[in-house]
Design a protein that fits this description.
The chain has 159 residues and is α/β, with parallel strands linked by helices. It has one domain: Roll (Nuclear Transport Factor 2, Chain: A). Helix content is 23%, strand content 41%. It contains two helices and eight strands; from the N terminus they run ααββββββββ. It has a six-stranded mixed β-sheet with strand order 2-1-5-6-7-8.
């Protein structure tokens, strides 16, 4: 192959790769099952790890980036739900506060999700309010009667 043709071929090949990369979204679409599972995990943490009435906002951190519309699943939640990136740690005890309002919050994190079987998963989670109020748990979740249900909750650590 002559050098000009070879150079043109390489450039065309490179342009195919570059255009393919730039067209990708910042996160991949995933199955509705995994989104529903993630929602069930967060709702469980809201109900079982809420540290009291002074918590005005839940700051959620999924194990991987989610589309903005994921927050709409929690539009009816009390306290209200925002992304963890909208919150910060402040003061000597690293209290969770929403940046915009300075309201007290709790950071709820899904550290990881591992599929065990077709309709069963394990999730590692963290609930953090400040330097002396945090817990780490492993949840076992099963799909039963049309929804995801936490079957067991094992405490891995408490602060």
């Amino acid at each position: 192959m002559n050098p000009v043709r070879r150079c043109v071929s390489i450039l065309l090949l490179c342009s195919c790769f570059v255009s393919g990369v730039s067209a990708q979204a910042p996160f991949a679409d995933e199955s509705p099952d995994k989104s529903n599972l993630r929602e069930a995990i967060f709702r469980y943490t809201f109900e079982h790890y809420n540290y009291g009435p002074y918590v005005k906002v839940f700051c959620i951190q999924p194990e991987q980036p989610q589309p903005e519309k994921f927050l709409l699943r929690f539009a009816d939640s009390k306290p209200r739900v925002v992304w963890a990136s909208d919150c910060e740690l402040t003061g000597p005890m690293n209290a969770v506060k929403q940046k915009k309002t300075a309201e007290s919050g709790m950071r709820m994190t899904v550290i990881s999700i591992r599929w065990i079987g077709g309709r069963e998963a394990e999730a590692r989670v963290e609930a953090f309010c400040d330097g002396i109020a945090a817990n780490w748990n492993t949840l076992r979740i099963v799909f039963k009667e049309g929804r995801w249900i936490v079957k067991s909750d094992k405490v891995d650590g408490v602060s």
